[in-house]
Amino acid sequence: xxxxxxxxxxxxxxxxxxxxxxxxxxxxxxxxxxxxxxxxxxxxxxxxxxxxxxxxxxxxxxxxxxxxxxxxxxxxxxxxxxxxxxxxxxxxxxxxxxxxxxxxxxxxxxxxxxxxxxxxxxxxxxxxxxxxxxxxxxxxxxxxxxxxxxxxxxxxxxxxxxxxxxxxxxxxxxxxxxxxxxxxxxxxxxxxxxxxxxxxxxxxxxxxxxxxxxxxxxxxxxxxxxxxxxxxxxxxxxxxxxxxxxxxxxxxxxxxxxxxxxxxxxxxxxxxxxxxxxxxxxxxxxxxxxxxxxxxxxxxxxxxxxxxxxxxxxxxxxxxxxxxxxxxxxxxxxxxxxxxxxxxxxxxxxxxxxxxxxxxxxxxxxxxxxxxxxxxxxxxxxxxxxxxxxxxxxxxxxxxxxxxxxxxxxxxxxxxxxxxxxxxxxxxx
Length: 429
Fold this sequence. Notes:
The chain is α/β, with parallel strands linked by helices. The chain folds into 2 domains: 3-64 and 336-427, Aspartate Aminotransferase, domain 1; 69-333, Type I PLP-dependent aspartate aminotransferase-like (Major domain) (Aspartate Aminotransferase, domain 2). Helix content is 36%, strand content 16%. The protein is built from 13 helices and 16 strands. A 7-stranded mixed β-sheet has the order 4-12-11-10-7-5-6, with helices on both faces. It has a 4-stranded mixed β-sheet with strand order 1-2-3-15. A 3-stranded antiparallel β-sheet has the order 13-14-16, covered by helices on one side. Strand 8 and strand 9 form a beta hairpin. It is globular and about 65 Å long. The model has no long low-confidence stretch (mean pLDDT 96).
């Protein structure tokens, strides 16, 4: 590829495209990609980058995987899209059956949507409509955790931390939800009763108004890459049961092996009333999400005034996406993925350990295929992104965090290159 193509793509991009979390004009440099394979992204100027982000955590099998390619091609010859109102198709049925089988007993119904944010919106509407069906319409508030992140659509934004989150600008326009402190108990530690004091008081005083509590189990993702004790989820489940409040787990970031368990809820052996899945569901090939719930939830919603769940995305259960999800899940389960993720955790921990000696580093932490360097000050994206590209890796920091969530297929040598670049960039900030 030539520098001319690089320049043409950058000029064309800057003239008409608006990128996420960036100004439309005079934003940070954009890097043109023309192809990708395995864990490598091919830049238009001929350079290659090792992808440490798995395309925002979803491309767990890397890029251009022959198994997933075949799944798309095969389904394309059958049917690429169908409306899901009144119709069904084999990939949707097979995928729903697979998800029910893989998740804990009690999550018996699958509602498909087209993104993680919408999966959360669906969960919120399920919880609220359930209580309407149970003749308790007063229960329409949700409780979320500080430092949490649940998506960019309006309902999902209302559940993100209103102070430290990235959506505070919309605060006056959003539904007012309730917030409890984020757990401070480390992942490998116990969760004391002191951790539960404030959320217990909140549920005790306002449970008549609360439909559900929503949390990201074990790992708070885009709100800070924080890891906390699974025991917190055990205590939270008991609280929700006691005060007759539903429990929603947002596993959009953690599902399908990222924390070392197939689903993060397995660390605590806790079953929510509603479970949100997305991101890695299709291995990063297609946009697809799923919200699972119990038969009890279905009955309550059916008994509501509408007699049906009032939601219906145009592209829900897209056949191409469902077929790809089936192939991705089968591919994951056909391999010793637990050993692979454990290897990645060990290598990430080893490679990032030198960052602990840096004066500008607050903490280094790893869990499963997640590695985090938390700095004491926020990074400048205009400066830090080119530094990673110059070192041959793609890492997308935010706030005070330099982190990696690599594809599971990443080889040990590439992990070493990735972590060395992260430590080196941190050292030069």
